[in-house]
Amino acid sequence: MDKRPGILVVDDQVNTLRVLALFLKDNGFLVHKALGGKRALALYREMPHLDVILSDLKMPGMDGLTLFRKMEAIKKTPPFIIMTAYATVQTAIKALKAGVTDYLIKPLNFEELPLTLAKVLKQKEMSRELDLLRRQVGQNTSFQGMIGQSETMLKVFELIKTVAPTDAPVLITGETGSGKELIAKSLHKKSHRKDGPMVSINCAALTESLLEAQLFGHKKGSFTGALKDTMGLLEKADQGTLFLDEIDKMSLALQAKLLRFLEEKTFRPVGGSQTKNVDVRIIAASNQDLAQHIRQGGFLCDLLYRIEVIKIKAPCLKERKEDIPLLCKHFLEHYARHYRKPVNGINTPCLEALANYHWPGNVRELKNCLARAVILSRSKTIKPDDLPAKITGSAQKKPHTGPGFNLAMPGSSLKEMETSLIQNTMEHCKGNKSLAARMLGISRKGLYQKLKRLGLESEERNKR
């Protein structure tokens, strides 16, 4: 079996194909040639294995980006590198957003080409090893429905294991969408109360009087509309767990009544004269700073002491970005089944965009984002175009020189054009020098040298 890496070279020029094939063969590749996009697509259908594809962009009949999209629709493509003599930033951005791996400028630099291919193949191998590792440790990537392998999440899992068997009240803090309710459910499922009920209520969803009636129950005639005796959530949760989400929205009067229950383990329904005893574990959650609420007079100090015997912080997504690939895999599999779409992966530029986004809505926002991506995707792989503009950074911005980086202004000097090109590219890439260098078709070191030569180095430093 030939162990050389297989490469498919696509171009509409016979001479270019011949030169590239000879060069790549001399550099240890098993070379397959295709004269044009249609021939390449036919070959691709027949080939069981390829390590990399090197394709021209501008070709009659089927251009490089169309070829890439059609190949993706058949099966997940290996690393796909575009070559073009038509070097514009707009074209580079379009290619990278579509999901291609890299972008090379013609005439090709035959000293850099082997290095580029070696880098791409190394990334492919690392990705393969990472997928294998994830499959091997897949059973350890989730805990009671929570996904994560980051150090932050592993600490949360360990704390849950330690705390769950006790009856101690727990306060779960964290930003909106960070998974506080999942932590509460995990505490219940890992406790000796797991066979008892778990009852949840959002304290922000009801008025004070309705929340009181829901929690403690009420007697017939105790208020307008109370047509019969009704059992409260505390009683329904007997021998189980009561989860109070957004407890900071509870009124001071209700807080006092809850505090009394925590101290005495008894309560009296609204309009009732007899007390009731129940055995309930209280778990509360808040996305607010309750200590600050106490200082502002909005929360009872004694109640905070009672409910935060144990405190668990649900980490926000930006604190556990290494979990994003695992979360993506989990949500993609779920929504691919749910919406009956043949989506089975997500490409590297897309993962990079997800990792660079700040996620104010945390895991909930990521989940909704991937549901949208699965619905909109037209291939088996999620690409940056399937994501919202706010995540990819492709929200329409007005460049210094107008739409599309139209840099060839009459009368401009070469230095002015180069300066403008680099400034616009750096702005588009939000200061990411690696991405900017790739779009410009130069090395990162080369970009640093140009920034210094054009006097842009200090300007970039000041923006940070």
From TrEMBL:
Keyword Secreted attached: no
SUPFAM superfamilies the record matches: CheY-like (SSF52172), Homeodomain-like (SSF46689), P-loop containing nucleoside triphosphate hydrolases (SSF52540)
Domain Sigma-54 factor interaction as annotated: residue spans: 146-375
One GO term of the biological process aspect: regulation of DNA-templated transcription
Domain Response regulatory: 6-121
Keyword Membrane: no
InterPro entries (alphabetical): AAA+_ATPase, AAA_lid_NorR, CheY-like_superfamily, Homeodomain-like_sf, HTH_Fis, P-loop_NTPase, Sig_transdc_resp-reg_receiver, Sigma_54_int
Residues recorded as bearing 4-aspartylphosphate in the entry: 56
CDD domains assigned to the protein according to its UniProt record, in alphabetical order: AAA, REC
An example Gene Ontology molecular-function term: sequence-specific DNA binding
Keyword annotations from UniProtKB, A to Z: Activator, ATP-binding, DNA-binding, Nucleotide-binding, Phosphoprotein, Transcription, Transcription regulation
Name the UniProt record assigns to this protein: Acetoacetate metabolism regulatory protein AtoC
Protein's organism: Dethiosulfatarculus sandiegensis
Lineage: Bacteria, Pseudomonadati, Thermodesulfobacteriota, Desulfarculia, Desulfarculales
